[in-house]
Amino acid sequence: MNSKPICISMDTNALQHIVWVSGIVITALLILICPAIWWKISKKKDAPFRPNMINVFFQTLISIPFILIIGLIITLVVDSYLIEDSSKEFSSENWHKYAEKRTEYANQIVDNQLLIGKTKEEVVAILGNDTVNYFSFGIRYDLGNQSAIDRYWLLIHFEDGKVYEVIKAGM
Q1: Which of 72, 105, 135, 160 shows its CA 20 to 30 Å from the CA of 17?
Q2: What is the mean pLDDT of residues 25-47?
Q3: What is the C-alpha to C-alpha distance for residues 131 and 83, in angstroms, rounded to an integer?
Q4: Cα→Cα distances 85→8, 24, 93, Å
Q5: Does a structural domain hold residue 26?
Q6: Are 29 and 37 within 8 A, CB to CB?
Q7: Of the candidates 84, 105, 139, which is a domain's last residue?
């Protein structure tokens, strides 16, 4: 019997929603059970205060901001560590899907030499044909504006039909 592991693919936004809703629900439950906790503590013989509803009410009221802060911190930590933003890593799919992040992807392409040795056809298959200009030296992809006045391009130089240099240039 051949068993395969079960893999669940989930959109990053859906996972973030689950984390945040879980954080809110857990925090709300803690706030709801807070009076019961204070009541149980106040019923102990060595408790510094008498068990009455007014004491429990004010203790709960004072506890709520702390519970909210702790719940928010835990949710933020879980959100930042468990959820890996798949749009941060370069891929052909991300290049086309997240055009606003192309300057970040260009840095990864240059730093990791992802296109070195590829043919012009392979480069166009990876990066597409939408913002491309062909020149005698090779191909120039428009990366868009990184700021209000700075425009960037990915310059891909070919030698003997293969990529030998990739530069991110700005003006």
Answers
A1: 105
A2: 85
A3: 31
A4: 16, 22, 14
A5: yes
A6: no
A7: 84
pTM for this prediction: 0.52
Per the document, the length of the chain is 171
Give the residue-averaged pLDDT of 5-28: 71
Extended beta strands in 76-145, E state: 132-134, 138-145
Residue type, 151: R
- Give the whole-angstrom CA distance, residue 162 versus residue 122: 10
Tell how many helices (H) and how many strands (E) occur in the chain: 5, 4
Residue pLDDT, tens place only, 73-116: 988 888 777 666 666 788 888 888 888 888 888 989 999 999 99
Phi, psi values for residue 114, rounded to 5°? -70, -25
Q: Which residue has the tokens 């990066």?
A: 127
